[in-house]
């Protein structure tokens, strides 16, 4: 009996030590410190292409370095790339011997001059009346190949939306020429001319190498850009601080990096990423995702707006695309006995699973989900100047971050591997 009691006592001591360890790293004081810096007025709302976002990037990189992460490239924590801003000049072409109206031609490309015909070897795709335009186009962009696409005239309004989409675009190896027509493309020839300018961007990325499964990756991410400075509100405040959106998610990523770096027990390689340019099209996460073989990414925890209570109150959050993999079930299993609860996304009509920074990898089958508490039907300060640190619940944020750390442990340790997203359902 004494032996059994001793074992029980040792286990109890171990649990207390574990609790103290996580509380020492992830606590409300640290949450507030990081959140306050990222959402401060001197960050100028962290808009892309401003000194404010560069200042935020430097701070995040310093936190990753302090945590003991390895730089993503050489001695730099910056993953640099460019957004292109194409200016349409002119377009012309023929389809099955008939002239194509200029307004019915769109190109998604980083090249100034695109010439393609039926002898060019590009893959032909038809987006029919029953298809959905944008998901198909995004999947083609993710493929790093060249496509000639005919689009059914039913999608005319959305096709015009592609013209607005291309006003700023991600520099990608894919080239896609789209023609609005109900005809099957037998013979075709199209030339598209545009003026290209490039604007530099950077994600902030740190690596914690794994041990036995170092070639398998688990990603923790959030976006650090926001809306910048705009028209003053009635109180005279012109800065969109973005405390919840998404300084709260980046705060979580930094603290998770500190936590796992001190645990030193990750069998899989952990990647911690703060994405740029989410607010202008998700270009940061798209570039980041293209640096990985999706078959080697075991899970992605994207964290977006966790500073306010969820619709269920404190000690709760939801997971987008919960039904698409068993990752949520794994997290729930690891949280058994705790007061915290993960729920399926309560806003399915908003299609959040494919609207956040997890989307690019999810479309490639990765169990990549976004964790959030945002009440998407009633979030009072969303995209307003009032999204400031005073509106957030530091204590609840702390519990959410700790719960992510605990619930992810078996995936980080390589003991659990979530099922993959069924990509056949994406068309």
TrEMBL record:
Residues 203-404 form the Peptidase M28 domain. It holds the Pfam family Peptidase_M28. SUPFAM superfamilies: Zn-dependent exopeptidases. GO terms for molecular function: metalloexopeptidase activity. One of its GO terms (biological process) is proteolysis. PANTHER family: METALLOPEPTIDASE M28 FAMILY MEMBER, PEPTIDASE M28 DOMAIN-CONTAINING PROTEIN. This is Peptidase M28-like protein. It comes from Pseudobacter ginsenosidimutans. The lineage of its organism: Bacteria, Pseudomonadati, Bacteroidota, Chitinophagia, Chitinophagales.
């Amino acid at each position: 009996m004494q032996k059994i009691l001793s074992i029980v006592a040792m286990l109890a001591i171990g649990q207390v030590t574990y609790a103290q360890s996580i509380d020492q790293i992830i606590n409300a004081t640290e949450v507030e410190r990081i959140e306050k810096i990222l959402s401060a007025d001197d960050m100028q709302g962290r808009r892309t292409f401003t000194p404010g976002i560069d200042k935020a990037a430097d701070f995040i990189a310093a936190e990753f370095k302090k945590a003991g992460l390895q730089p993503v490239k050489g001695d730099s924590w910056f993953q640099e790339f460019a957004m292109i801003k194409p200016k349409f000049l002119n377009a012309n072409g023929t389809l099955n011997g008939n002239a194509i109206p200029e307004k019915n031609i769109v190109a998604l490309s980083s090249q100034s001059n695109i010439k393609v015909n039926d002898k060019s070897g590009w893959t032909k795709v038809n987006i029919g009346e029953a298809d959905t335009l944008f998901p198909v186009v995004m999947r083609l962009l993710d493929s790093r190949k060249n496509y000639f696409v005919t689009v059914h005239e039913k999608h005319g309004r959305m096709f015009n939306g592609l013209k607005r989409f291309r006003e700023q675009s991600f520099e990608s190896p894919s080239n896609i020429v789209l023609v609005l027509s109900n005809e099957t493309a037998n013979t075709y020839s199209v030339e598209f001319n545009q003026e290209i300018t490039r604007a530099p961007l950077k994600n902030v990325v740190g690596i914690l190498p794994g041990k036995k499964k170092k070639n398998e990756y688990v990603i923790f991410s959030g976006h650090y850009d926001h809306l910048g400075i705009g028209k003053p509100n009635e109180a005279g405040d012109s800065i969109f601080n973005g405390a919840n959106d998404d300084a709260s998610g980046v705060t979580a990523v930094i603290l998770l990096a500190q936590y796992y770096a001190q645990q030193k027990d990750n069998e899989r390689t952990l990647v911690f990423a703060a994405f740029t340019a989410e607010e202008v099209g998700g270009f940061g996460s798209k570039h980041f995702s293209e640096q990985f073989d999706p078959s080697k990414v075991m899970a992605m925890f994207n964290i977006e707006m966790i500073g306010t209570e969820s619709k269920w109150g404190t000690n709760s959050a939801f997971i987008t695309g919960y039904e698409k993999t068993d990752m949520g079930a794994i997290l729930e299993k690891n949280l058994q006995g705790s007061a915290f609860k993960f729920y399926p996304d309560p806003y399915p009509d908003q299609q959040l699973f494919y609207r956040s920074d997890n989307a690019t990898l999810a479309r490639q089958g990765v169990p990549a989900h976004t964790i959030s508490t945002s009440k998407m039907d009633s979030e009072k300060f969303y995209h307003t100047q009032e999204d400031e640190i005073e509106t957030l619940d530091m204590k609840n944020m702390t519990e959410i971050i700790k719960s992510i750390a605990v619930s992810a442990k078996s995936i980080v340790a390589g003991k659990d591997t979530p099922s993959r997203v069924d990509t056949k359902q994406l068309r």
